[in-house]
Structure prediction request, 154 residues.
Amino acid sequence: MTGWWRDASILGDLGGALGGLFETEEPNLVMGTQSRGSLLGVLTANSLGVGFAEVRKNPSPSADSDAWWRTSTAPDYRDRHLELGVRRSRMQSGDRVLFVDDWIATGAQARACKRLVEMSGATWVGGSVVVDGLEDASLRRQLNIRSLLHIREL
Ligand SMILES: O=P(O)(O)OC[C@H]1O[C@H](OP(=O)(O)OP(=O)(O)O)[C@H](O)[C@@H]1O
Ligand SMILES: Nc1ncnc2[nH]cnc12
Prediction:
C-alpha cells in the first residue's frame, strides 16, 4: 500500500480523489487515525480546503486528560483493542466530519471514530478510504463508506 505513495502522480491525485467522493456533502473537517489515516487525511483536507483533526492511538495519559474524547475499539484486523483519542478542542458541535483512511477491514477503527464524532456533538458525514476490504458489508451503509478501490480489484 504505502509503495503507492512513492509515485508522485499517485500522491498528487490521492487527496483530490478521496475528497471528491464526498464533495457534495460539504464536510468542513477531516479526521484520520495515526498514522496512514493522518497522512491521507491531511492530503484530503487540503484538497477540500478544510481543516484536519488527528486521532491518536493509545494516547499516553496526560495531565490534561479531560481535554480528550476517548474510546476503545472492538478487535481490529490485527485483533487489537486500541484506545483512540482526539482533542476536544479539535472537533465541535456543528462540524461535519469526513473520516479518511487507506484501508478498512473490520471497521473497528472507523466505528470508534464515529463514536468520537458523536461524543463531540459533531456530525459524521461518512468515510472515504482507498481500499474497501470490509468484512461485514452492512457496515458500508451504516458508516457511509465510499472507496477508490475494492479489495477484489487488487
Ligand atoms: O478496519 P480495521 O480493522 O479497523 O483496520 C483498518 C485500520 O488498520 C490500519 O491501520 P494500522 O492500525 O495498521 O496503523 P498504521 O496506519 O499506523 O499502519 C489501516 O490503516 C486502518 O486504519
Ligand atoms: N493497511 C491495512 N489495514 C487493514 N487491513 C489490511 N490488510 C492489508 N493491509 C491492511
The chain has one domain: 2-153.
